[in-house]
TrEMBL record:
Subcellular location as annotated: Cell membrane
Family statement: Belongs to the glycosyltransferase 87 family.
Organism this protein belongs to: Streptomyces gibsoniae
A Pfam family matched in the record: GT87
Predominant localisation class: membrane
Name of the protein in its database record: Glycosyltransferase 87 family protein
Residue ranges crossing the lipid bilayer per the database entry: 47-67, 149-170, 182-212, 218-246, 258-280, 292-309, 316-336, 342-361, 382-400, 420-440
Membrane-related topology note: Multi-pass membrane protein
Keywords: Cell membrane, Membrane, Transferase, Transmembrane, Transmembrane helix
Lineage of origin: Bacteria, Bacillati, Actinomycetota, Actinomycetes, Kitasatosporales
InterPro entries: GT87, UCP010361
Length: 502
């Protein structure tokens, strides 16, 4: 007989969707741990809740990613340029410890650096993160050991960010906590987590989206502002939110979010902006003046057509393509038969920004991993995209090994690297295509097939439309009016899951 505690847990907690009952890939993968859970499993009967499992898996995969960097930690970062590429274990972190003055005690944005860079080329909050890590790194000893410790300190801080990302992703959709495993088990996430400091902005944005899903518009805005102070791309989420709130008439919540974002960004940036204007502006001037670089569609086109694309031309085309894509996303949002989910549009806008950027560093995949898990929680599509990203991860390091190995030419030649870029672009476009298909055909959306509307939408979840265009303007007008069948994979329908395990 179930205990009173178990009964209370089963009454007050929502039914948890088990991926092993709706996703054939998840079901097949679960055979490694004994197969799908039985139908009588109840939520709250064990310490092993979905969120705790997701957090522990994220820690384990992050640790494996650190182990993958071991050849570089031992010697690759310090002796010979090509070995850190042939082992695919490169990281900016140890190199910038000395290269950006942290080893010499220079203060970011205020102290001028020797060489051509002049000042640190990162947003302010990321610079603070880097500086705090340098405070925790011993100032004595040989430079190699100090760089190793600096990387290890940063890895520990980034691990906290990784757990925050996985946990927030698991908690955004109350009935789908197991989707957090998509983040925790993403191979590209583990491989790229300690290349740079991107996880700080990703964690802040994940926490922001959790706050929005709980209806806390001000907290959402503040966290978006802080994320934008750490990396440029998070402010893009306000665009999809504008169109969604326009369609639903949620102007007060949108205004609150924008004010919170602007205020938080100003609090972080204004002191440095006024006290060290040249250092503060370096990130923005560097981004504008930077030429076509690794992984971008512009590099692919320039090498394919054997032409040179100046930075100004690339900037103009990137802006044009971004604006055109934003207009297309807005049109889809206002004309879709059912208002798109917030996570779907955030994924699309960030993916478009990546695809139209002048550079694609391998760690940029981190921006998309939690968004992809929320937008399209289907293991097959997610793993197809991840395979493409892992291919690019290996491709860029093998190409750099080829260019740095002199006459030995060990690695991937230019034509092979072109293929790696194409694989990355096509993989991201594929995931964008299936998300757009889900928006235009909401009955194919796995989240809505399970009976939900927009778990990441906060005040938008189940809200009535007040402004729509095209066929969407005709009744039924209520976002929750669509009651599509809960069709599981296979030949029979399955009820929403009762248990807490996948």
């Amino acid at each position: 007989m179930p205990s009173a505690e178990t009964t209370r847990a089963s009454v007050h907690e929502p039914d948890v969707v088990r991926p092993t009952r709706e996703d054939e890939v998840a079901a097949a993968g679960s055979e490694l741990i004994g197969g799908p859970i039985g139908r009588r499993a109840l939520l709250g009967t064990s310490w092993w809740t979905p969120v705790r499992v997701v957090a522990l898996v994220a820690i384990g995969l992050f640790a494996l990613g650190m182990v993958q960097k071991l050849p570089c930690y031992d010697s690759g970062w310090f002796f010979g340029a090509s070995s850190q590429y042939t082992h695919a274990c490169y990281s900016d972190i140890p190199h910038l410890y000395q290269g950006r003055g942290f080893a010499d005690g220079l203060v970011p944005y205020f102290d001028k650096l020797p060489g051509d860079m002049n000042y640190l080329e990162y947003p302010v909050l990321t610079g603070v993160f880097m500086e705090v890590a340098s405070w925790l790194t011993p100032s004595s000893g040989d430079i190699q050991s100090r760089e190793q410790i600096y990387w290890m300190v940063n890895a520990g801080m980034l691990l906290v960010c990784a757990v925050v990302i996985a946990v927030c992703t698991a908690r955004i959709h109350r009935r789908r906590p197991w989707d957090g495993l998509l983040v925790a088990l993403a191979p590209a996430f583990a491989l790229t987590a300690t290349i740079n400091w991107d996880l700080l902005a990703v964690a802040l944005l994940a926490a922001a989206m959790l706050m929005w899903s709980r209806g806390r518009a001000l907290a959402f805005g503040i966290l978006v502002g802080l994320a934008t102070a750490a990396k440029f791309y998070p402010f893009l989420v306000l665009g999809p939110l504008l169109v969604l709130c326009w369609r639903a008439g949620k102007w007060r919540e949108f205004s609150t979010a924008v004010l919170g974002a602007v205020g938080a960004w100003l609090v972080v940036n204004v002191p440095v902006m006024f006290l060290a204007p040249q250092g503060w502006s370096k990130f923005y001037s560097f981004s504008k003046e930077r030429g076509v670089d690794f992984g971008s569609i512009f590099l692919f086109v320039s090498r394919w057509l054997n032409i040179d694309i100046p930075a100004q031309t690339a900037n103009a085309w990137a802006m044009f393509l971004m604006v055109a894509a934003c207009a297309g996303i807005a049109a889809i949002t206002l004309t879709a038969p059912r208002r798109p989910r917030f996570a779907q549009l955030v994924f699309l806008i960030v993916a478009v920004f990546i695809l139209t950027n002048k550079v694609y560093s391998p760690q940029y995949v981190l921006w998309l991993v939690p968004l992809a898990a929320l937008a399209r929680p289907r293991w097959r599509d997610f793993l197809i995209w991840q395979a493409c990203e892992v291919g690019y991860f290996l491709g860029i390091w093998m190409y750099l090994a080829y260019t740095s190995s002199g006459d030995a030419h060990k690695g991937l030649p230019s034509d092979g690297y072109q293929v790696a870029i194409a694989v990355h672009l096509l993989g991201t476009l594929y995931l964008c295509a299936v998300v757009v298909r889900d928006i235009l055909m909401p009955e194919r959306d796995m989240v809505r097939r399970a009976g939900d509307d927009d778990p990441s939408g906060g005040v938008l979840d189940g809200a009535e439309d007040v402004f729509v265009l095209g066929a969407a303007a005709h009744p039924p007008r209520h976002a929750a009016a669509f009651e599509g069948p809960h069709v599981e994979w296979g030949s029979r329908d399955v009820e929403p899951a009762e248990g807490s395990s996948p």
